[in-house]
From TrEMBL, chain A:
Gene3D superfamilies: 1.10.287.3510. It is a multi-pass membrane protein. PANTHER family: NADH DEHYDROGENASE SUBUNIT 4L-RELATED (PTHR11434:SF21), NADH-UBIQUINONE OXIDOREDUCTASE SUBUNIT ND4L (PTHR11434). This is NADH-quinone oxidoreductase subunit K. Its EC number is 7.1.1.-. It comes from Geodermatophilus siccatus. The keyword Coiled coil does not apply.
TrEMBL record, chain B:
Its EC number is 7.1.1.-. This is NADH-quinone oxidoreductase subunit H. InterPro entries: NADH_UbQ_OxRdtase_su1/FPO, NADH_UbQ_OxRdtase_su1_CS. The chain crosses the membrane at residues 20-44, 91-110, 130-150, 171-189, 218-237, 266-288, 308-328, 340-362, 374-395. It is found in: Cell membrane; Membrane. It is an enzyme of class 7 (translocase). Its main location: membrane. The gene is nuoH. GO terms for biological process: aerobic respiration.
TrEMBL record, chain D:
One of its GO terms (molecular function) is quinone binding. Its EC number is 7.1.1.-. Belongs to the complex I subunit 3 family. NDH-1 is composed of 14 different subunits. Subunits NuoA, H, J, K, L, M, N constitute the membrane sector of the complex. It catalyses: a quinone + NADH + 5 H(+)(in) = a quinol + NAD(+) + 4 H(+)(out). It is found in: Cell membrane; Membrane. NDH-1 shuttles electrons from NADH, via FMN and iron-sulfur (Fe-S) centers, to quinones in the respiratory chain. The immediate electron acceptor for the enzyme in this species is believed to be a menaquinone. Couples the redox reaction to proton translocation (for every two electrons transferred, four hydrogen ions are translocated across the cytoplasmic membrane), and thus conserves the redox energy in a proton gradient. Its main location: membrane. Pfam families: Oxidored_q4 (PF00507). It is an enzyme of class 7 (translocase). This is NADH-quinone oxidoreductase subunit A. GO terms for cellular component: NADH dehydrogenase complex; plasma membrane. It is a multi-pass membrane protein.
TrEMBL record, chain E:
PANTHER family: NADH DEHYDROGENASE. Its EC number is 7.1.1.-. One of its GO terms (cellular component) is plasma membrane. Keywords: Cell membrane, Membrane, NAD, Quinone, Translocase, Transmembrane, Transmembrane helix, Transport. It comes from Geodermatophilus africanus. GO terms for molecular function: NADH dehydrogenase (quinone) (non-electrogenic) activity; NADH dehydrogenase (ubiquinone) activity; quinone binding. NDH-1 shuttles electrons from NADH, via FMN and iron-sulfur (Fe-S) centers, to quinones in the respiratory chain. The immediate electron acceptor for the enzyme in this species is believed to be a menaquinone. Couples the redox reaction to proton translocation (for every two electrons transferred, four hydrogen ions are translocated across the cytoplasmic membrane), and thus conserves the redox energy in a proton gradient. It catalyses: a quinone + NADH + 5 H(+)(in) = a quinol + NAD(+) + 4 H(+)(out). This is NADH-quinone oxidoreductase subunit N.
C-alpha cells in the first residue's frame, strides 16, 4: 500500500465526517462526525510525516489529539446541558433562534 | 544506557525477524501459557483463600484438587446459554469476545526470557517487542473496558448497567494512576520497550553516598518504590479485584456487569479477568522486578540469566504477584465506592505526579550538576519531600475544613451533624407512641431502629391501578387493606 | 488683522456654542435661545470681518490655516477661502441669525427640549462653514458627510408629521452620494500618489495633477453624483420636496439656502478645476439635466398644494439655473451662478420664512386652506410679495441680476439650452403669482376662519388639488366667522426686514459681490480651460422677460 | 517495516478465533429449557421495570469522571515521550514539564476544590 | 542532546501575563470563599489583561521570532495583542457589571442546574454569581493574543482552540433566556468544531505540500515551484475557510446571528470585538507571511468572499427585528469591509502591505465601537432582561437622552459617518484596496455601506423620532464598570474619528511582519 492510499482514505473519512455533520440531526452524532474529521486529519498528518521522513507530523497528531480531547470535554458539557433541559439532543429541536 | 547487556539479552532489532513457524510456536505458547496460568490462578486463589480462612479449599478433582478449575470450565460449557429478551443481541453476543481478545493481546510484549535456541533458531523468549512496547499493554487493557461496558449495557438490565458504569469509571480512574506510575520507569530506562526496560534493570545501580560507593539492586521496585506501590494499588483497581471489586459487588449489584451472562460467555469474562491479572503481574515483574532476570542471590550464579532458566524466575515472580492479589482479597474488605474513587483521584494521582517531578528533578540535577546520588537526595529530595508533606498537610486540612467546622458546631450542639431528612410524606396516622407517655422510647434510647410507622410511597404502577386511600394517607405497600391505619388508631 | 484665523474661529465658535447649549441645565430655554442668537451674530461679525480682510485682487485662497491632521492619509486641516466660498460664508452668517430669530417660538414636539434644536443648529452652522472653507478634499468630504447628522436630527426631531420618512430619505440620499464621492476621493488620492509620488488631498496640489481622461471621467462622475444629489438636479431630486416640506422652517431655510449650495459649490470648486477634460466632455449631459430640472420642477411646482413642497420645487428649478450657469463655462454665466447661489439663499430663504409664518398662523401647509390674508395682514402679504417676486426674478430684486447674468453668459455658448431655460422663467412667474394670489387675496378661506358654533369644522386635510373654486364654494357657509390672522409681530418683522433689505439692496447694487466672486470664477475658468472671454459682468441691466 | 507487529496480529487471530468459537458454540452445547422468566432481566425476584436506566439519565458523576480522565490521559500522552527523551532534553525539558504539570495541577486543584472528585 | 529552543520571556510577557492571570483565576475559584470571589476574580482578570496591554505596548518596535520559531513578536502581533488585551479588559468590565440586572449578573449562577427547574428559578434571583467566566474569558483572551502571534500553523491551531473553547462555554451561560443561550452554545460549538476541522485538514495538506508548518518555510516552498501545486492551494483554501469562520465572514457566518443573539450580551460584545481582531490577525499573517508570494492563489477567493460578506451582512441586516441579530449582521458586513483591507496587499517584499496598517486600525476602531454598542444594549431592559427587540427601542431618546445619544454615536460610527472612528477605518481600508486596483470591490463596499446605513438609521429613527411605547423598557442606571466602558468607547470612537493620526501612525508603523 503506498502512502497515497492512506491519503485517499483520510480524505474519504474527512468527507464522510463533513457530510455527516451536515446531514445528521443528533448533536452527539454531529459531534462524533467532527471527531472523525479530526482523526482523518491525524491520519493525513502521520502519512505525510512518514513520507517526509520527519516526526513533525506525528507530533502534530499529538497536539490534535489533545485539542480533540479538550473539545470533547467542552462539547459534551454543552450538549449535555442542553440535553438535560430538553431531553433531546436533536439539532432540529433546537429551534428557538431563528430569523 | 550503560547496560553491559549479556550477549543473549535481546535488542529491539531481534524482533520481527523470526521465521513463520517460530512465530506460530510463540503464539500458541503464549496462548497456552495464559490459559494454563488462568486455570492455575483460579485454583491457586481458592486454595490460598481457603487457607487464610482456615479451610481446605477444593480437593476433589484431580490431584489435591488442582483440576478443579478445569472441571468448572467444562461445566460452564454445558450450561444453558441465555440471551435476555431485552438484550441488544449483537452487542451482547460480542461483548465477551471484546473483553477476552485484548486480554490475550496484552501479553504479547511481555518478555519471558533471553535469546534462546528453539530448534536451532536463535530467538528471544518473547512474542514480540516494539519501541513502544508498554503502550501495547496499556492499549489492550484499555480496550478491555469496552467489553465490560458494552456487556453491561447490552444486557438490558439494571444491575449489569450499573456494574458496567462503575467498572468503566473505576478502570479509567485507576488507569490514570497506573499510567503515571510507570512514567518514572520510562524516565530511568529511557525506553518504552519492555525488553530494554528489563535490560536496564540488569545491572546493579552504582550509588555513591557521600563517598561510600556500593551497588544496589537494579530493580525499579527498589529504585522507584513510590512508583511501584502506586502501580500495585492501581492495577488491583484496574483489574476489578478485591478490595476494589466494586463493579461486581455481590451485595450491591448481584454480579455486576455479567449478571445476565451464563455459560461460556460468562466463562470468557472470567477468563479475561484472570488473564488481565496475570498480565499485570507479568508487567509488574517486567517493569519493577527485573523481568526474567534472576533475583539477587541467584544472580550470583552466572548461568542463571541464560538459557531457559529465566522462564522459571519470571513465572516465580508472576506467581508471587498473583499471590499478592489473592492475599489482598483474603484480607481486605471491599471499599465503599466513594472511598475508592477518592483514593484513586485524590491520593494516587497527585502522589504520582509529584513523584514524577521529584524523580525527574533529581535525575536532571544529578546529570547537569554532576552530583552524587546522595547529595542530590539531600539537596533536592529532602526539600521536595518536605514541600510535598507540607502541601499534603495543608490540602488535607483544607479539604476537611467543612467537616471540622461542622464537627465543632455539632459538638457545641448548634447543628445536627447530618442534615435532617426532608419530610417527603405526611405521617400515615397518629403516632404509635402518643406524646404524652413518659419514659424514653427505644427510638430515642440508644441504638437506631427503623421507624415503626414507615410509609412507603406507592409504586407508579400501583397508583395507576388503584385509587389512593380515601383519607388521603398514602397506602403502604404490603399492607394494602386498611388494617395498618386501623392498627394505629387502636394503639 | 488678516493673520487672525477667521475661518477656524467661524468653525469653532458655533461648535463651542453648540456644546454650551447642550451643557445648559434643563429648562433654560430662554438662555439657550439667547446664546444661540449671540453665537450666530458673532459668526456673522466674523464673516464680515473676514470679508474686509479679504484682498480681492490677492491670491486665490486667503485667510488660510493649515495644520497637519492625519499625516498617514496626507490629510491637512487646511482652510482657506476664495471669493466664491467667502460669499457663501457671508450667506451663512446672515441666514443663521435670521433663522434663529425665526425659530424663536418654535415649539418642541412631545416632551423634547428645544435645547437640542439650538445645539444642532449651531453645529450645523459650524459644519457648513467648514464645508465651504475647506481646501483639503478629505476635509471637505468629512464636513460634507458630517453635515448630514445635524440636519438629519433637525428634520427627524423637529419636523412635520412625516419627518421620520423625510429624515431617513434625506440621509440615505446624501449618504449614497457621499459614499460614491468617497470612492472618487480615494481614487483621486491614489491617482495623485501615482502622479506626484506622494498622495495628497490638498486642493492646490491636486489641481496640478494630470489625470488620464478615462480616470478623470470616472472620478468626475463620483463627485458629480454626490453634488447632483446635494444640489438636486432632476433625477436625484426626489428627496428635497420631502425634506423641505417636513423640516422645521429654520431647517428648511438652511437646507435649501445653504446646504444644497454645497452641491453647486462642489461643481465649481471640485468638478471643474480637478477634472477639466471630463467637465468639458460631459457638460452637455449636465446641461440637459439642468434644463430638464428647470422645466420639470416648475411644472411640478404649479401642481403642488403644499406650500413648503411648492417652495422646494421652485428651488429645484433655481438649481437648474445655477447648474446651467456653471456648465456654460463662461465667466459671466458662472459668476451669475455663484451670485444666484447667494441670491437664491436669500430669496428662497425669505419665501420659506414667510410661508412658515403663514403656517404658524393657520396650522396648515395647504395652499387651499388660505385666502384673503392680505386684507388682514398687509405686512405679511407685503413681505410675501417681495419674496415671491424675488423668487421669480423680477428686475430690481436680487435674483434678477444673477438669473440675467446666467442667461446672458450661457447664450453665446449654449443658445438652445438658454432658450429652453427662459421658458422656466415664465413658468416661475406663474407658480409664484398663483401662490400669492390664492393665499393673499380673494375671500377668506380654510383654516383662517374661526368655525361658527353650528357650522361643521372646515376640512383642512383637503387632497392634493384643493382649488380656489371649491374653497370659494365653502366660504359662504362660514360667513359669520371672522378672520383671526395676526399681522407680523415685531420678532417676525425683525426676521423679515433684513432679508427684504438684502433682496432689494442686492437687486440694486450687486457689484461688491460680483467683485468678490469674479476673480475666483475667472481662476476656475482658466482651470477648466474655458474661453475666459465673454460679456463683462457690468453688462447693462435692462429688459425683462 | 512493521514486521514486529505481525505476531500480535497472529495472536489476535488465535484469541479471536477462540473467543468467537466459544460464544458461538455455547448455545449448541448447553441444554435448552425454555422459560419466560429466564429471558426477563434479573431483578432479584421483583417484577422488572422496563429499562429504568438506558435511555434515561445516568448520574452526572460518571460524565465528570470521564472528562477528568480525558484531561489526565492527555497529560500522560505528553509525559511518556518526555520521560523517554528526558536525558536528551536536559534542564529545558525539566522546566517545560514542571510548567506543564503545574498547569495541569492548577486544573486538578480546581476540580478537587469544586467537588469534581467527590462521590457521594 | 536536543537543543533547547530559544525563548525570549520578555517578548512573551504579554502572553504570560494573561495566561498567568487566568491560572491564578482558576486557583482563586478553587480556594477563595464564595462571597469574596467575584471582586477578586474581576481584579485578577483586569490586572492580567491590563498587564498584557501594558507589556505589549512596551514591546512596541520589537521584531523577532522566538519560542523556537513558533511565535513571531513583530509589529502586527504586538499591535493586535495590545488591541485584544485592551478590548478584552473592556469586555471583562461588562462581565463584571452587577447593578443592571435585578438578578445581579448577566451570567447564570450555576450552569449545571437544568434550565427551568425549581432550583433554577430559585437561583435566578439569588445573589450568587458565576465567577468562572472570568478565568474562562481570560483564557480566551490569551488564546486570541497567541493567535495573532502564531508563526506556525500548529500554534495557530492550538491558539484557535484555546480561544474558542472558553467562548463556546461562556456563550451558553446567560442568566435569562437560558434555553436560547444553551442553544447558541451548541450551535456555536458544533459549527466551530466543524470549522476547526477544516483548518486542521488545511494544515495537514499544507504540511504535506511543503513539508513544514512554519509560515516562513511555507512561503519559501510556495515561492519555489509556481505556487506549490494543488495540495498547497487546497490546503490554503481550507485554512482560510477555518479562519473566515471565526471571523464570521459570509458565507461562513451561519452561526453569527444565532450566537450573538443567544449569548449573554457582554459575551457577545467580547466575541464581536476580540474574536474578530484575533481572527483577522491570523488571516493577515497567514496570507501575507505564508502565502505572500503566491498571492494569485488567494486573491480571487478573498475578493469574492469579501463581496458576498458585505452584501449578505448589509442585505440580511435590513430584515432583522432584533438588535443583537442586527449587530451580528453588521459584524458580517464589517468583516467584508475588513477583507477589503486585507486585499490591499501591497508591494512590500517583507510582508509589508498597504492593507495591513489600515486593517489593524479598522479592527481597533470597530472593536471599540461594537463593544460600546453592546454595552448600551445591556442598559435597556424590561421585565425579561434586556429588551433587544427593535420595537422596544421606540422613543428611547425620550426616556434617556444620553443613552440614546451614545447609541446613536455608535451606530453612526458603524455606518461610517465622518468624524467617527468608523469613517477613518473605512477610509483607510478602502484606500488600501483602491491603491491595489480593487475598484469594483470598493464600489460594492460603498453600496453595501449605504444599505447597511439604512438599518443603523432605522434604530436612530426609532429612538428619536418615534413615540415611546406605553409599556416600553426602562433604561438602567449603569454601574461603574459599564460606565467606564461607555466612557472609554465613546471617547475612542470620537477621538479616532477626529484625530486618528497618532493611532494610525502606530498601526502603520507596526505594519511589518517578521519571518
Amino acid at each position: 500500500m503506498s502512502l497515497t492510499h492512506y491519503l485517499v482514505l483520510a480524505a474519504i473519512l474527512f468527507t464522510i465526517g463533513a457530510v455527516g455533520v451536515l446531514v445528521r440531526r443528533n448533536a452527539i452524532v454531529v459531534f462524533m462526525c467532527v471527531e472523525l474529521m479530526l482523526n482523518s486529519v491525524n491520519l493525513t498528518l502521520v502519512t505525510f510525516a512518514r513520507a517526509s521522513g520527519t516526526v513533525d507530523g506525528q507530533v502534530m497528531a499529538f497536539f490534535v489529539m489533545v485539542v480533540a480531547a479538550a473539545e470533547v470535554v467542552v462539547g459534551l458539557a454543552i450538549i449535555m446541558s442542553l440535553f438535560r433541559t430538553r431531553r433531546s439532543a436533536s439539532v432540529d429541536d433546537a429551534n428557538l433562534l431563528k430569523y | 544506557m550503560t547496560v553491559a547487556a549479556a550477549a543473549d539479552q535481546p535488542t529491539l532489532a531481534d524482533f520481527g525477524t523470526d521465521v513463520w513457524w517460530i512465530v506460530l510456536i510463540k503464539i500458541v505458547g503464549v496462548f497456552v501459557v495464559l490459559v494454563l496460568l488462568t486455570l492455575f490462578a483460579i485454583v491457586f486463589e481458592r486454595k490460598v483463600v481457603a487457607r487464610m480462612q482456615q479451610r481446605i479449599g477444593p480437593n476433589r478433582v484431580g490431584p489435591r484438587g488442582y483440576l478443579q478449575s478445569l472441571a468448572d470450565g467444562l461445566k460452564l460449557a454445558f450450561k444453558e446459554d441465555i440471551m435476555p429478551a431485552l438484550a441488544d443481541k449483537p452487542v451482547y453476543f460480542l461483548a465477551p469476545v471484546l473483553a477476552t481478545v485484548p486480554a490475550f493481546l496484552a501479553f504479547s510484549v511481555i518478555p519471558l526470557g533471553p535469546v534462546v535456541s528453539i530448534f536451532g533458531q536463535q530467538t528471544p523468549l518473547q512474542l514480540t517487542d516494539a519501541p513502544i512496547g508498554v503502550l501495547v499493554v496499556l492499549a489492550c487493557s484499555a480496550m478491555g473496558i469496552y467489553g465490560i461496558v458494552l456487556g453491561g449495557w447490552a444486557s438490558g438490565s439494571t444491575y449489569p448497567l450499573l456494574g458496567s458504569l462503575r467498572s468503566a469509571a473505576q478502570m479509567i480512574s485507576y488507569e490514570i494512576a497506573m499510567g503515571l506510575s510507570i512514567v518514572a520507569v520510562f524516565l530511568y530506562a529511557g525506553s518504552m520497550s519492555t525488553s530494554e526496560i528489563v535490560a536496564a534493570q540488569a545491572d546493579g545501580n552504582q550509588v555513591s553516598f557521600f563517598g561510600l560507593t556500593f551497588t544496589g539492586p537494579g530493580w525499579y521496585a527498589v529504585l522507584l518504590p513510590v512508583s511501584f506501590v502506586i502501580y500495585v494499588i492501581a492495577v488491583v483497581g484496574e483489574t476489578n479485584r478485591a478490595p476494589f471489586d466494586l463493579p461486581e459487588a455481590e451485595s450491591e449489584l448481584v454480579g455486576g456487569f455479567h449478571t445476565e451472562y451464563s455459560s461460556l460467555k460468562f466463562a470468557l469474562f472470567f477468563l479475561a479477568e484472570y488473564i488481565n491479572m496475570v498480565t499485570v503481574s507479568a508487567l509488574a515483574a517486567t517493569l519493577f522486578l527485573g523481568g526474567w532476570r534472576a533475583p539477587w542471590p541467584i544472580s550470583i550464579w552466572d548461568g542463571a540469566n541464560s538459557g531457559w532458566w529465566p522462564l522459571l524466575w519470571f513465572f516465580l515472580k508472576v506467581v508471587a504477584a498473583l499471590f499478592v492479589f489473592i492475599w489482598l482479597r483474603g484480607t481486605l474488605p471491599r471499599l465503599r465506592y466513594d472511598q475508592f474513587m477518592r483514593f484513586g483521584w485524590k491520593v494516587l494521582v497527585p502522589t504520582a505526579l509529584v513523584w514524577i517531578l521529584a524523580v525527574a528533578t533529581m535525575r536532571t540535577v544529578a546529570r547537569e550538576a554532576d552530583l552524587s546520588t546522595g547529595q542530590v537526595a539531600l539537596f533536592v529530595g529532602v526539600p521536595i519531600a518536605l514541600l510535598v508533606i507540607a502541601v499534603l498537610l495543608v490540602v488535607s486540612r483544607a479539604s476537611n475544613r467543612a467537616t471540622r467546622i461542622a464537627a465543632t458546631k455539632a459538638a457545641a450542639g448548634s447543628i445536627h451533624p447530618t442534615e435532617a431528612e426532608p419530610e417527603v410524606l405526611p405521617p400515615a396516622g397518629p403516632r404509635r407512641r402518643p406524646a404524652g407517655r413518659t419514659g424514653p422510647s427505644r427510638a430515642e434510647g440508644g441504638f437506631p431502629i427503623p421507624p415503626m410507622d414507615l410509609a412507603v410511597p406507592p409504586s407508579p404502577r400501583l397508583r395507576s391501578r388503584e385509587a389512593v386511600a380515601p383519607d388521603g394517607a398514602v397506602v403502604g405497600t404490603g399492607r394494602r387493606s386498611g388494617a395498618g391505619t386501623q392498627e394505629d388508631v387502636d394503639d | 488683522m488678516s493673520d487672525f484665523p477667521f475661518l477656524l474661529a467661524m468653525i469653532a465658535v458655533p461648535a463651542v456654542g453648540a456644546a454650551a447649549v447642550t451643557a445648559l441645565p434643563k429648562g433654560r430655554e430662554q438662555t439657550a435661545r439667547q446664546l444661540s442668537l449671540g453665537v450666530s451674530l458673532v459668526v456673522l461679525l466674523l464673516a464680515v470681518l473676514a470679508t474686509i480682510a479679504f484682498d480681492v485682487g490677492g491670491e486665490r485662497f486667503q485667510l488660510t490655516t493649515s495644520v497637519s491632521w492625519i499625516p498617514d492619509f496626507g490629510v491637512d486641516f487646511a482652510l482657506g477661502v476664495d471669493g466664491i466660498a467667502l460669499v457663501m460664508l457671508l450667506l451663512i452668517g446672515v441666514l443663521v441669525p435670521v433663522v434663529v430669530v425665526a425659530s424663536w417660538r418654535e415649539e418642541p414636539t412631545g416632551r423634547r427640549s428645544m435645547r437640542a434644536f439650538w445645539a444642532w443648529l449651531l453645529l450645523l452652522e459650524s459644519l457648513m462653514v467648514g464645508v465651504f472653507a475647506a481646501t483639503d478634499v478629505f476635509l471637505f468630504y468629512v464636513f460634507f458627510e458630517a453635515m448630514l447628522v445635524p440636519m438629519y436630527f433637525l428634520i427627524g426631531s423637529f419636523g412635520g408629521p412625516r419627518r421620520q420618512y423625510a429624515a431617513v430619505k434625506f440621509f440615505l440620499y446624501s449618504l449614497v452620494g457621499g459614499l460614491v464621492m468617497l470612492a472618487a476621493v480615494i481614487g483621486l488620492y491614489v491617482v495623485s500618489a501615482n502622479e506626484l509620488g506622494e498622495g495628497t488631498f490638498a486642493f492646490d496640489a491636486l489641481r496640478q495633477v494630470e489625470i488620464d481622461p478615462g480616470v478623470q471621467k470616472l472620478l468626475f462622475l463620483g463627485f458629480f453624483v454626490a453634488f447632483a444629489i446635494k444640489a438636486p438636479l432632476v433625477p436625484f431630486h426626489t428627496w428635497l420636496p420631502d425634506s423641505g416640506a417636513e423640516a422645521p422652517i429654520g431647517g428648511a431655510v438652511l437646507l435649501v439656502g445653504v446646504l444644497d449650495k454645497v452641491g453647486t459649490f462642489g461643481f465649481i470648486r471640485y468638478c471643474l478645476p480637478l477634472f477639466p477634460d471630463a467637465s468639458r466632455e460631459l457638460a452637455p449631459y449636465v446641461l440637459v439635466l439642468a434644463v430638464a430640472g428647470i422645466l420639470y420642477a416648475a411644472l411640478l411646482a404649479m401642481g403642488q398644494s403644499d406650500m413648503k413642497r411648492l417652495v422646494s420645487y421652485t428651488s429645484i428649478a433655481h438649481f437648474g439655473f445655477i447648474a446651467l450657469g456653471i456648465f456654460a463655462f463662461t465667466t459671466e454665466a458662472t459668476t451669475g451662478a455663484v451670485l444666484y447661489m447667494v441670491n437664491h439663499g436669500i430669496a428662497t430663504g425669505l419665501l420659506f420664512l414667510v410661508v412658515g409664518m403663514l403656517i404658524a398662523r393657520g396650522g396648515s401647509r395647504l395652499v387651499g386652506d388660505y385666502g384673503g390674508v392680505a386684507a388682514q395682514a398687509p405686512l405679511l402679504a407685503g413681505v410675501f410679495l417681495v419674496a415671491g417676486l424675488a423668487s421669480l426674478a423680477l428686475p430690481g430684486t436680487n435674483s434678477f441680476v444673477s438669473e440675467f447674468l446666467v442667461l446672458i453668459g450661457s447664450f453665446p455658448t449654449r443658445p438652445v439650452f438658454t432658450v429652453l431655460a427662459t421658458v422656466g422663467i415664465v413658468l416661475a412667474a406663474l407658480y409664484v403669482l398663483l401662490l400669492y394670489q390664492r393665499t393673499m387675496h380673494g375671500p377668506p378661506r380654510g383654516v383662517l376662519l374661526e368655525p361658527a358654533p353650528e357650522a361643521p369644522a372646515p376640512t383642512t386635510g383637503g387632497g392634493g388639488g384643493a382649488t380656489a373654486a371649491t374653497a370659494t364654494l365653502e366660504a359662504p357657509a362660514a360667513a359669520p366667522a371672522r378672520l383671526r390672522v395676526r399681522d407680523l409681530s415685531r420678532r417676525e418683522l425683525a426676521v423679515a426686514a433684513p432679508m427684504v433689505a438684502l433682496v432689494i439692496a442686492l437687486g440694486v447694487y450687486p457689484q461688491p459681490l460680483i467683485d468678490l466672486i469674479e476673480p475666483a470664477v475667472a481662476a476656475t475658468m482658466s482651470d477648466v480651460g474655458a474661453d475666459p472671454a465673454g460679456v463683462s459682468p457690468e453688462a447693462p441691466v435692462e429688459g425683462t422677460d | 517495516m512493521l514486521s514486529q507487529y505481525v505476531p500480535i496480529v497472529g495472536l489476535f487471530a488465535l484469541a479471536a478465533a477462540f473467543a468467537l468459537f466459544s460464544v458461538t458454540v455455547a448455545p449448541f452445547v448447553g441444554p435448552h429449557r425454555h422459560n419466560r422468566a429466564k429471558l426477563a432481566a434479573y431483578e432479584c425476584g421483583i417484577e422488572p421495570v422496563d429499562q429504568p436506566l438506558t435511555g434515561g439519565r445516568f448520574p452526572i458523576k460518571y460524565y465528570l469522571t470521564a472528562m477528568i480522565f480525558i484531561v489526565f490521559d492527555i497529560e500522560i500522552v505528553f509525559l511518556y515521550p518526555w520521560a523517554v527523551a528526558n536525558d536528551a532534553l536536559g534542564v529545558f525539558g525539566l522546566v517545560e514539564m514542571v510548567v506543564f504539570i503545574g498547569t495541569v495541577f492548577i486544573a486538578y486543584v480546581y476540580v478537587w476544590r469544586r467537588g469534581g472528585l467527590d462521590w457521594d | 542532546m536536543i537543543e533547547a529552543p530559544d525563548l525570549s520571556l520578555a517578548a512573551l510577557a504579554p502572553l504570560l501575563f494573561v495566561f498567568g492571570a487566568a491560572c491564578v483565576g482558576v486557583l482563586v475559584e478553587a480556594f477563595a470563599p464564595r462571597d469574596v470571589r467575584h471582586p477578586v476574580q474581576v481584579a485578577i482578570a483586569l490586572v492580567g489583561t491590563l498587564g498584557g496591554l501594558v507589556t505589549s505596548l512596551l514591546l512596541a518596535g520589537e521584531r523577532q521570532v522566538t519560542a523556537g520559531g513558533a511565535l513571531a513578536v513583530d509589529g502586527p502581533a504586538v499591535f493586535l495583542e495590545a488591541t485584544i488585551a485592551g478590548l478584552g479588559a473592556l469586555s471583562l468590565l461588562l462581565f463584571a457589571e452587577r447593578s443592571l440586572d435585578p438578578a445581579r449578573s448577566a451570567f447564570v449562577a450555576a450552569a449545571a442546574v437544568p434550565a427551568g427547574s425549581p432550583r433554577d428559578r430559585e437561583l435566578m434571583t439569588a445573589p450568587r454569581v458565576q465567577t468562572e467566566v472570568y478565568p474562562l474569558a481570560t483564557f480566551a483572551i490569551g488564546g486570541m493574543m497567541l493567535f495573532v502571534a502564531a508563526n506556525d500553523l500548529l500554534v495557530m491551531f492550538v491558539a484557535l482552540e484555546v480561544l474558542s473553547l472558553p467562548l463556546y462555554l461562556i456563550s451558553g451561560l446567560a442568566r435569562r433566556r437560558r434555553l436560547l443561550s444553551q442553544e447558541a452554545a451548541v450551535k456555536y460549538f458544533l459549527l466551530g468544531a466543524f470549522a476547526s476541522a477544516f483548518f486542521l485538514y488545511g494544515l495537514a495538506l499544507v504540511y504535506g505540500a511543503t513539508g513544514s508548518i512554519r509560515l516562513s518555510a511555507i512561503r519559501e516552498a510556495s515561492a519555489g515551484e509556481a505556487g506549490g501545486g494543488v495540495l498547497l492551494v487546497l490546503g490554503l483554501a481550507l485554512l482560510v475557510v477555518g479562519l473566515l469562520f471565526k471571523a464570521s465572514v459570509a458565507p461562513f457566518h451561519a452561526w453569527t446571528p444565532d450566537v450573538y443573539q443567544g449569548a449573554p450580551t457582554p459575551v457577545t460584545a467580547f466575541m464581536a470585538a476580540c474574536t474578530k481582531v484575533a481572527a483577522f490577525g491570523a488571516i493577515l499573517r497567514l496570507l501575507y507571511v505564508a502565502f505572500g508570494t503566491s498571492e494569485w492563489t488567494w486573491r480571487p477567493l478573498v475578493y469574492g468572499i469579501a463581496i458576498v460578506s458585505m452584501v449578505v451582512g448589509a442585505v440580511l441586516g435590513l430584515t432583522q427585528t432584533d438588535l443583537k441579530r442586527m449587530l451580528a449582521y453588521s459584524s458580517i458586513a464589517h468583516a467584508g469591509f475588513l477583507l477589503t483591507g486585507v486585499l490591499g496587499y501591497g508591494s512590500g517584499p517583507d510582508g509589508t502591505g498597504s492593507g495591513l496598517g489600515p486593517t489593524m486600525f479598522y479592527l481597533l476602531a470597530y472593536g471599540l465601537t461594537t463593544i460600546g454598542a453592546f454595552a448600551v444594549l445591556t442598559l435597556v431592559r424590561d421585565g425579561d432582561g434586556e429588551a433587544t427587540h427593535l420595537s422596544q427601542w421606540a422613543g428611547l431618546g425620550r426616556r434617556s437622552t444620553l443613552t440614546a445619544a451614545v447609541m446613536a454615536l455608535f451606530l453612526l460610527a458603524l455606518a461610517g459617518i465622518p468624524l467617527t472612528s468608523g469613517f477613518t477605518g473605512k477610509f483607510a481600508v478602502f484606500r488600501a484596496a483602491i491603491d491595489d486596483g480593487a475598484w469594483p470591490l470598493v464600489l460594492v463596499a460603498l453600496l453595501a455601506s449605504a444599505v447597511a446605513a439604512f438599518f443603523y438609521l432605522r434604530v436612530i429613527v426609532l429612538m428619536y423620532f418615534s413615540e415611546p411605547a406605553v409599556d416600553g423598557p426602562t433604561v438602567g442606571v449603569p454601574g461603574l464598570p459599564t460606565t467606564l466602558v461607555l466612557a472609554v468607547t465613546v471617547t475612542a470612537t470620537v477621538v479616532l474619528g477626529v484625530v486618528p493620526g497618532a493611532v494610525l501612525d502606530l498601526a502603520e508603523g507596526a505594519a511589518r511582519f517578521v519571518g
